[in-house]
Amino acid sequence: MLILASRSKARKKLLENLGVRFRVMPARVKEHTETVRHPARTVAANALLKARDVAGRVKKGIVIGCDTLVWQDGRVFGKPASLKEARRMLKKLSRRPHVLYTGIAVIDAATGRQAAGVEETHIEMEPLSDREITQYFRKVSPLDKAGGFDVQGLGGSFIRRIRGCYFNVVGLPIARLRVMLKKFGVSLLLVLCGFVVNGCSTEYNVATHKEDMMMYSTEREVAIGDSLAAQVEKNYTVVQDPQMNERLERIGARVAEASDRHDLTYRFRIIEDPKDKDIVNAVSLPGGYIYIFKNLMTVADTDDELAAVVAHEVAHVVARHSIKRLQAIWGYNILTILAGAAKNAEAAQGVQMAYAFLLSGYSQEDELTADGMGAIYAKRAGYNPQGMIDFLDKLRKRQKKEPPQALSYFKTHPGYGRRIRATKEALGENIDFDDFIDTL
Question: E-assigned strands of 350-427?
Answer without folding.
Answer: none
